[in-house]
Amino acid sequence: MNDTQAMEEAVEVLQQLGLKEYEARCFVGLSRLRAGTAKQLADLTEVPRTRVYDAIRMLEAQGLVEIQHSSPQQFRSVPLQEATETLRDQYEARVDRLHDALTTIEVVEKEDDAPIQQVWAMSGYVAIENRAIDLMEEAREEVVLVIGDESLVTDELLACVNDIPAGVEVLLGAVSNDLERELRRNVSGATTFVSGLEWLVGEGVEHREVAIGRLLLVDRSAILVSSIMPDTGSEQAIFGEGFGNGLVVIARRLMAQGLVRGKDPAS
Amino acid sequence: MNDTQAMEEAVEVLQQLGLKEYEARCFVGLSRLRAGTAKQLADLTEVPRTRVYDAIRMLEAQGLVEIQHSSPQQFRSVPLQEATETLRDQYEARVDRLHDALTTIEVVEKEDDAPIQQVWAMSGYVAIENRAIDLMEEAREEVVLVIGDESLVTDELLACVNDIPAGVEVLLGAVSNDLERELRRNVSGATTFVSGLEWLVGEGVEHREVAIGRLLLVDRSAILVSSIMPDTGSEQAIFGEGFGNGLVVIARRLMAQGLVRGKDPAS
DNA sequence: AATTCTGTCACCCGTATAATCACAAAAATG
DNA sequence: CATTTTTGTGATTATACGGGTGACAGAATT
Predict the structure, then answer these.
(1) How far is A129 from chain B (nearest CA, A)?
(2) pLDDT by residue for chain B (267 residues), tens digit each?
(3) In CATH, what number does B3-98 get?
(4) Contacts of A149 (CB under 8 A, 6+ apart)
(5) Angle at CA A111, nearest 5°, toward A106 and A113?
(6) Could you tell me which CATH number the domain at A3-97 has?
(7) How many CB atoms are located within 10 Å of the residue A238 CB?
(8) Which of A87, A240, B26, B81 pairs as cysteine with B55 (C-beta 3.0–4.6 A)?
């Protein structure tokens, strides 16, 4: 990666982490200056000199830079190691506070009527993976998991699959030979197979370039199907649970036919 | 904690974590509703109904809520466990990206002239603790640490002190008997003592209510002194290094007199 | 058929933040 | 010592974003 690119990247990320633009630019500036005055920083980062002071003060308050009160003042950034550690701590504290606050109010409001057909949509790679892991951890009899893209095979996922107790039957599918080999190499106690999932993309219908993400069926009563969007590359999923759930019923059908047929066990 | 308090707290923290107010309120609302429509959410959270949709979309994109595309749409939040996990992952990823970006540009700009007296100021409890730990980890001969307030005795700090290799002499001071006992109970391989640090607050000068935070001297060549501000309760520190550093020189003097005198070892 | 509900848009407005300017004290220069 | 540059603070303007409100068409309900 190019230096200027990297700097922009860093500024961007710092802003996502809650810093203002000037603050971010100043911090990045100090990262390559080791130590500097307001003027030097202003020249390097193109932050208006008179605004550098405010930005630095904010950064100092957050424990990210140090100030030497000489004349002219000198600024320098905390070592990268310390900075990331500080940010991390800050964040952990926040997440904990959130967790505490929310658990004290998890008082559920009226659990009323019919648990009808519910199909939920979710998006985002991280959230979907977490949900998938959650589901697998709760499996009591059977887990069927088909992976459509190697980018989805993370350490967490593999660890989770390997942690499934012995009493639970695990069927692990892949859409390509390579991927299946990869899976078999990293997983024990599971039956792996290759599955052409043509039926998923819609047999003969319009058939756009939506790539298959993953397909997870747990105890034949909860299903999660995800796709990789062609344009953005983001992952989108739908998810249903309950034995009577329409989506789950359809999924059971399809699995029985398309998956298990030429292959292995269970009706 | 009261429910409404907890909700406000949660909203606040969520905003610190990067969510907009409406998004935060909606998420908190869904946390106690298990599932709900836009109208229900609007009534509960006082977010304008027409704005609930935008907020939910953002939340969905971040993997924090699920949408059921029925009519009316139903929304529900991801289980708290998953939500915090997702947020944590997101954050880790950002910090990593930051780390990568900054290391690629850590090309130091001109390391020029005289390494004169440098005294740096920093503030914020987390940052100061991190710096203190850093310093102690680099100790090769001697660590002198005086604690002025029990709130500063964290697990990390204790762990760090206990991890100091045997070859390094450790002098651990406290400003009260109780605190010294506490320290001795949790630390091994260190000489503990009680030190009235009157001299730190300025003998007879104005003497405001600045509480002593910590005092750290490593290898007699780096020093960190912190105070607890009377009004805000925040921690502020100054820090100097280099054997010739003025601050360090003074510190050595003071230590030799005020600390070691009536007590223990080393000149 | 009438009414309520649902979802989308377009718009206003206040605040926060980016961006400039004015200025006095301090430092540097000759 | 006089002049010029640098430094730090404060005030001011411009702008973008997010909070807040209303209009409206289609769907659902009565």
Answers:
(1) 9
(2) 677 888 999 999 999 999 999 999 999 999 988 888 999 999 989 999 999 999 999 999 898 998 888 778 889 898 898 999 999 988 999 999 999 999 888 665 554 444 455 678 888 888 999 999 999 999 999 998 988 888 999 999 999 999 999 999 998 988 888 889 999 999 998 988 887 554 444 333 344 456 778 888 898 888 888 878 777 778 888 888 765 565 666 666 656 555 544 444 333
(3) 1.10.10.10
(4) A175, A211, A212, A213, A214, A228
(5) 160
(6) 1.10.10.10
(7) 18
(8) B26
Residue among B18, B88, B124 minimizing CB distance to A16: B18
A119-259: CATH homologous superfamily? Endonuclease Chain A (3.30.870.10)
B39: CB within 7 A of chain C nucleic strand? yes
Domain extent listing, chain B: 3-98, 119-259
Smallest Cβ–Cβ distance between A101 and the set B9, B61, B123 belongs to B9
> Any chain B CB within 8 A of the CB of A9?
yes
To the question of pTM greater than 0.85 for the whole model, the response is no
Q: Before B79, cis peptide (omega within 30)? A: no
